[in-house]
Design a protein that fits this description.
nucleotide-binding, ATP-binding, globular, Thymidylate kinase, P-loop_NTPase, five-stranded parallel β-sheet, nucleotide biosynthesis
């Protein structure tokens, strides 16, 4: 059985870059790696409904905290069997976003650490206990400064006509609260052990040798 490893962080933090780098390095060590990113836009009706909500196309559902969170969770429930199969066939299953994204963003929408709430526990109860979505073995938090992540997200949107900022990405206050929630979840070892990686001065992220494991 393989290990389920998740990369978490703000929009524009560099999750896709890190997951690609980790997959390449583990592959060079002879490990088999399966990758998946959430939400699964274009692959899951629930993910596509989430996208509609994030762009304000679902009326007052877009204003709900619990409604979109349920759709995010249903997207992962739909992928649970595929994740289990990938774990049976690979050394590592590497995910770009997972359950903790739901917990962090939803909690932040309710006010974040300054307004304590039980949303993260609600997400865990829903996704792990009720939907039986596999629990991660390790979560890696890309702790990138909020302003840097926002600048990257804006640059990405400017370079792709199909990648306009959604309502979460364009809300700088929400992103700041989400960063604070991620820090709180990591400190509390939410769902699994966590590792925190911070960028170098040039914005790159060095991967610690012990994270990669023995060659």
């Amino acid at each position: 059985m393989g290990r389920l490893i998740v990369v978490e962080g703000l929009d524009g933090s560099g999750k896709a870059t890190l997951t690609a780098s980790l997959a390449r390095k583990w592959g060079e060590q002879g490990r088999t790696v399966a990758r998946l990113a959430f939400p699964r836009y274009g692959m899951s009706v629930h993910a596509d409904l989430v996208k509609d909500a994030l762009y304000g196309r679902l009326g007052d559902l877009s204003e709900s905290v619990y409604g979109p969170a349920l759709l995010f969770a249903l997207d992962r429930q739909g992928a649970a069997e595929d994740i289990e199969a990938a774990l049976a066939e690979n050394d590592i299953v590497l995910l770009d976003r997972y359950i903790s994204s739901n917990a962090a963003y939803g909690s932040a929408r309710l006010g974040g650490p300054a307004h304590p709430n039980d949303f993260a526990q609600w997400v865990a109860d829903l996704e792990v206990d009720r939907f039986e979505i596999p629990r991660p073995d390790l979560q890696i938090l890309l702790d990138v400064p909020v302003l840097l992540a926002a600048a990257r997200a804006r640059g990405r949107a400017a370079g792709d006509n199909n990648r306009a900022l959604d309502s979460f990405e364009s809300d700088s206050a929400l992103q700041a609260r989400t960063a604070a929630m991620y820090a709180e979840l990591a400190a509390g070892q939410y769902l699994s052990p966590w590792r925190i990686l911070k960028p170098e001065a040039d914005g790159s992220v060095a991967i610690p040798a012990d994270l990669l494991g023995p060659a």
